[in-house]
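subagent[fold] <- orchestrator: predict structure for attached chain, return tokens only, no commentary.
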Amino acid sequence: MSWITEFRDIDSQGLHFKVFKPAPELHGLVAYYWLLKCAQPAPREAELMLPDGFEEIIFSFGGSYKRTPVSGNKCVQNLEKSYLVGAKNQSVMCSRYSVLNMVGVKLFPQTLAALGRFPAASIFNQPIELKDFNIPLLCELEDRIFHSNSEPSLIKQLNQGLVKLLAHVELDPTVSRSIKLIGQNRGCISISTITQKTSCHYRTLEKKFKNNIGMSPKQFAKNLRFATAFFDMTHNSAQFNLEKYGYYDPSHFSKEFRFFTGQTPRQFILSRNDLSTHVFEHSHRSAKELESNAAKHNFT
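subagent[fold] -> orchestrator:
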């Protein structure tokens, strides 16, 4: 049996989620790695995953789950193989069918399209199985991860494999600069400010975003704004201020809340016993911490 399929350090909910920092050579391409193990075969609640601006490579080593979009095309997908998924502009509900053993790589936007040299629209909101991506190095990395015997070994395999895999990836500098501005402002920034600071006409910027990420800069900013507001609301509701996040009135926020969660804020609060945001919260907190540490060292 591989170490990756064993259950250790599982909490009372039968869940183990941990985040790891990638090698410095991967800065600007890889945000962080995560390890997820779920020991309980029959979960009590669905997991809500909000769009966070990242792309992902997800290596699956056993188990399966149902992935259901909250809005838009609600096509249910049953996933059990390793896959990649591009940027998202819709939330998904994930419900496990069985135990899970997964390793994820959070990639900065544009990375997958640059790696595969295809339009971002082909993986926008869409999980694509690893075998269909036609990159042998990814399949080799999946095998090495499976045969790792510890967390340090896992991180070593990820670093070595991804440094080699992403060595020649080049991102559009205008899009990268725009994403940085959006991230620094947690999505609360006007598109006119972005075009002014990047010296790029809006239609040109929109085309670049759609070609490299799959969505417009306005939608990308909307996603980050809501994810930040949602996290802060659920962790510090007493001091939550809508205007801080660019929402001009409660109905504006409620409309976006319904789009991303399928419920009104009140309905969501009442349904917390039937819904989990555990993984999203860990991921969002980890992303904020890594961003804060990078800023202190002038890495961003």
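orchestrator: received. Logging for downstream: Confidence is low (pLDDT under 50) at residues 294-300. The two ends are 41 Å apart (CA to CA).
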